[in-house]
Amino acid sequence: MVRNSKASTTRYECSDCGHHELRWMGRCPACDSWNTLVEMRTDSAPAARTEVRRRAAARNAGSAPISRPTPIGQIESSSTKRRPIEPEELSRVLGGGIVPGSLILLGGAPGVGKSTLLTMLCGQIAGQGEKVVYLSAEESGAQVRARAERMGAAHENFLLVEQPVLERVLGPLYEDPPAMLVVDSIQAVMSESIDGAPGLVSQIRTCGSLIADFARATDCAVFMIGHVTKDGDLAGPRVLEHLVDTVLYFEPQDQGEVRMVRAFKNRFGRTGELAVMEMTSTGLRPVRDASALFLAGRRQGENGSCVSCVMSGTRPLLVELQALLVNSQYGTPTRVVTGLDSKRVAQLGAILESRGGLQLTGQDTYVKVAGGLRLTDPAIDLGLTLAMASSLREVPLPVDLVALGEIGLTGELRPVTRLEMRLEEARAHGFRRAIVGAHDAQKLPRVKDMEIVAVRGVADAVNEAFARTGSARA
After folding, report:
1. Contact yes or no for 201/191 (Cβ under 8 A)
2. Residues 363, 226 share a domain
3. 281 and 132 within one domain
């Protein structure tokens, strides 16, 4: 019997991790995701031809051009020229502007403002006389135009393409590359060389490589919009994040019209930088004083509240830490944490009880970071501990007090980085007293109009914080 040379085989690819199986399964054995295996048909003949080409390339490797290692001192160095952009918040997160030829991935939940931000950026660059191209694979051209007109971004140099097939778009752009290309979104475009629907791992990987090659070859800055999974992670393979130069992410938060964009990766700047913006009818506008925003609505004289200062990249931010401890009505106490790692809160509670001399047994613990922030800075350890002690004692902390310090398991307080910058931010917002972790009080910075108290342990910090509050109930 003669075999059909064009016979096709069926395989199943996981849309979350790219794992392949020869038969359908309800759960992916690689990432344990349910109902993510998608049927794909592949031709056996192309696979055979690929193997033949691979073997031929191996035989001819001796005649191929040779690339010899070069001393790094002999490599031509080029200064990184950046294109300044507005708002300044976004420019700072990018490291000072857009680098030509860079590849930037912008992720976030649906409706958070990804397309709005990039439409605003396209209008700004087009208004400077540079050509920009917006590749819309999800929205219609009328929708993009309406958004651009509402934001005042509709310029003659703002070009729009409605085409999901990537090769049909990049081909003409190689001949006349724009200053910036926006791909909306990487999960909606597809390559003709890959069998499968847009959004599959193989499609995202291939399209990402095609876009990266285009950016490097033409010096065109490319922004790719990326979707997120139900867990809040960027959808698609991890190789996409390694491929790009910068990963920006709209952080999930519940602050109404406030939007926060953080740089999780940046080859041309500092990671961890945060841009705080406000969504308006004409687009995103920068928030000049983010500390005042996060402290807005703070009620003075309430127990269970303490202010600390975190570093977001190079930017200090004042945050309010809130704690509520009440007698548990059940056998097992409840612990609810918002904006922090719950295990970290449990650890600090154990330290406060063991080293601080306070009894937390039988207490339901509720902890929250006001303003919707998610914090990982260890400098907030002391502030959170004092907020818990304030709630337990039912005694408010002084309204002009700020607490900074990392707490170890033995109850010791360790100094934090960039202490002077944090204290200056606190002083600028009316705080006049600071309790900080330090081993040597002589090495503390001097900040005008601020009393700085150095403590070495949790018990000392609790006593110092409540020393001027009068009698306290333990």
Report:
1. no
2. no
3. yes
Cβ atoms of 155 and 260 within 8 Å: the answer is no
Q: Does 456 lie in the same domain as 369? A: yes
Structure tokens at 18: 């790219």
Count of beta carbons in the 10 Å neighbourhood of residue 387: 27
Name 364's bridge partners.
Answer: 326
What are the pLDDT digits (tens) for 27-70? 888 888 888 888 876 654 454 444 444 444 444 545 556 678 88
Do the beta carbons of residue 321 and residue 369 sit within 8 Å? yes
Average pLDDT over residues 104-132: 93
pTM summary value: 0.78
C-alpha distance across the termini of the chain, in Å: 90
- Interhelix angle 166-175/201-218, nearest 10 degrees: 0
Amino acid of residue 311: M
Q: Which DSSP letter does residue 83 get?
A: B
Instruction: Report the alpha-carbon angle 159-214-87, nearest 5.
Output: 55
Helix axes 458-465, 381-393, angle to 10 degrees: 60
Domain end (from 263, 288, 313): 288
Q: Tell me: do 106 and 254 sit in the same domain.
A: yes
* Residue ranges making up the domain that contains 360: 293-465
Q: Rounded to an integer, what distance in angstroms lies between the CA atom of residue 363 and that of residue 350?
A: 12
Longest dimension (CA), the chain: 97
308 located within any domain: yes
Tokens encoding 427: 């002083």
Q: pLDDT band at residue 132, thresholds of 50, 70 and 90?
A: very high
Is residue 5 a part of any domain in this protein? Answer: no
Look at residue 68 and tell me if it is in a domain: no
Q: Are residues 176 and 194 in the same domain?
A: yes
CA distance 227 to 110: 7
> In 320-418, which residue ranges form alpha helices assigned H by DSSP?
342-355, 381-393
Among 252, 270, 288, where does a domain finish?
A: 288
Asked if 221 contacts 130 with a C-beta cutoff of 8 angstroms, the reply is no
